[in-house]
Design goal:
This protein is mainly alpha-helical and about 425 residues long. It is elongated and about 110 Å long.
Length: about 425
Amino acid sequence: MAVPAASPDLSALSETAMRHAPFQAFKRLFLPAALLASLAAPFALAVPAAAEIAVSPAVGQPLQAARTALEKKQYANALKEVERASAAPKVTAQEKWAIEQMRAAIYKAQGRFDLAANAFEAAAKLVPLSDADQGGVLETLSQLWYRAGDYEKSIQFGEKAIAAGRRSDAFRQMVAEAYYRAKKPVEAARIAQALVTEQRKAGKTPSPDLLQFLAASEFASGDSAGYIRTLRQQLLTDPSRANWQRLFDTMERTQKVPDRLDLDWARLKLAADAYENPDSYTEMAQLALVSDLPGEALSILEKGWAGGILGTGPKAPRQERMRAYAQEQRAAQLAALDERERQAIADKDAESLAKIGMARVTQGQADKGIALMQQALRGKLRQPNPVRLRLAMAQYGARQAKPAQQTLATLPADSDEARLGGLWSLLYAGKK
């Protein structure tokens, strides 16, 4: 009796609901549907000698009955038929191979992945395999042990499969996730980073899911620099508030922003829509007022009102008073700016020119303000880097992206201003 060499369909090996939260608000599927589908190919041992193997009726008949029962999802009957085939006299190695393949298919269909893996491994030892077939066996065993929740065994077979040439992106990401679930985030990040690097070299954009997994692995391993780098990559395709908040939080924990740049840091958060509570808006508006920028303070407050964050609740009266004060100060400053500018130019006072330039920008006079800050930078400033940072911010706001990039390029690479400037570039890259 002839039995086809191809084994039963043992497809759909990977989970469809892989979730983990290494830190608050970080909950998404690591393996997307496309990757899950690519891992779902049937696995079967090839028989190199012939397209079909010969089995005796004592083995073939119960195996055919087991196949029929499996198709009807009558798993208990299918297993009984497999045992009947196994009990046949003088079972050959190839017949044992067919028996164990069928046993593995039944266990897999039942969700008993550990037993399926054991049966499949036993089958693999019964027939000679080419190198390519051996690699396929190792990959399948890695997938089965992953489904069984034995991540150490999944890793063991997975690394061997990768060494044997089984290097699909989907499979390697599964092995990386096995490392992550085995609480080995360093190794998980190693594989994920290799995938990202290879995809970029091939001109591909890494998927959001892969970048998210890499970020989670770096976060879990304590690699703050890598985590920040990956978050920045994520923001190019997913500039969500949650991603910006993660980046801001991690950067603050890693290296505190100096006090002189408090308002600049707040500007980035506001521009990224990373503020969610009323106090953030009023505290930033207070910073702007103290910095003699009432126009900016008013813009901050108005944004809070427009978003429904300000103007309600027990603090609404105080917020109303602050808005009224900002309006008064804005009008007073606007009336005095021309004379202040004339005097600063006459005195060749670069410090005053820089402040007036920023005031004009926040008063809605971007072109005049940019020109004044550029003039200030040609003079003598005690701290030119903050002025360069604010000039670039103003240029981005005026849709002058190329001049803004040129301005940021003049900042020392290791400066706090350059660190913040890179975020402005990232923020406006995401708005294209």
